[in-house]
Amino acid sequence: MHTDDAARTPADVPGPEELVREHTVYACVMGSRAFGLATDDSDTDRRGVFLAPTWSYWHFHKPPTHVEGPLDEQFSWELERFCELALRANPNILECLHSPLVEHCDATGRELLALRRAFLSLRAHETFARYALGQRRKLDADVRTHGAPRWKHAMHLLRLLMSCRDLLRTGRLTIDVGDAREELLAVKRGEVPWPEVESRMTALAEQTERAARRSPLPPEPDTARVTDFLYRVRRTSALAAP
User: Fold this and answer.
1) Which residues of the chain fall short of a pLDDT of 70?
2) Residue 12 belongs to domain spanning
3) What CATH number did the domain enclosing 38 receive?
4) Where are the beta strands (DSSP E) in the chain?
């Protein structure tokens, strides 16, 4: 918790940018840089989690559940919202927890990272597959309309399918593509014919289905453990209220 909370008056509810600047508990780099797919023109996508002080909820205007900015390509979630989405196996949220590029992590952030396995469950099979299906439909629409897909999106869909398959096989989420980097970048450059890319996507989807049937992941996440964590964090913050 931040020691300056005790010096605030009840009217000094922190604004969105202040929540990100002063109350972030975990921040990482995501996107191509975290996936091991960065090239010279890649953006730096930053994602984070902030903890709104408990006392800031004792007002009519509640803290936001998320904040865009203040930096370019930066997006942050309030801790409770982040945990809620992670328990639902939101792909983007789960991947944030497993980024190899951590820029900030305080004591609360370290506790959050220690809960990574508590969030993982077979729910990921449905959420990853549903997200992948939506992206596949967009790619198919591009092919029908323009004669070719958006190759960068095709690359990232292959990456997601590979990540989901391996998560279901091993029970561990690894987002860096490792040795698959060059074959994926070849897709991004449009060097792989679309029928071949389609064939790879279909094969990966079938492998994912087989992996789900014998996955070591539990059916549901450990909600009780996450709830206990959130309660303790909120309580500590409340005791430090001005």
Assistant:
1) 1-11
2) 3-120+221-239
3) 3.30.460
4) 24-30, 45-50, 66-68, 74-78, 102-105
